[in-house]
Amino acid sequence: MKVALTNFDKAFENRVRLQAMSVLVANESYDFNSLKDLLEVTDGNLASHLKALEKEEYITVSKSFLGRKPNTRYQASATGITAFKKHLVALENLIKQQKT
Asked: Could you tell me the pTM of the whole model?
């Protein structure tokens, strides 16, 4: 049985990007440190994966200050939400095909 991989998105092949996008789709926005703690990854690791999602225009970034501390927040874009949902449907279809 051959599985069509047309709706699989390479941007979500990595565990960190898949998890980050899951969090961002489920929430209005998330800040960098909270996301880092939730996913249990290093600053550099998370930053590189978020940069990859930003490059694909799947997330948007807003920077501000809370008092004197910089705060970076991430939000899933409409394009990112659509791509992520298509990817999830493709995964579900793959699982269903394996059950037959």
From this structure: 0.87
Q: Which of 25, 28, 22 is nearest to 62 (CA)?
A: 28
CA dihedral 28, 13, 6, 54 (to 10 degrees): 50
What DSSP letter does each residue of the chain carry, written as one string? -PPP-TT--GGG-SHHHHHHHHHHHHSS-EEHHHHHHHHT--HHHHHHHHHHHHHTTSEEEEEEEETTEEEEEEEE-HHHHHHHHHHHHHHHHHHHHHH-
Grade residue 66 by pLDDT with cuts at 50, 70 and 90: confident
Please check whether residue 53 is in contact with residue 17, taking contact to mean a CB–CB distance below 8 angstroms.
yes
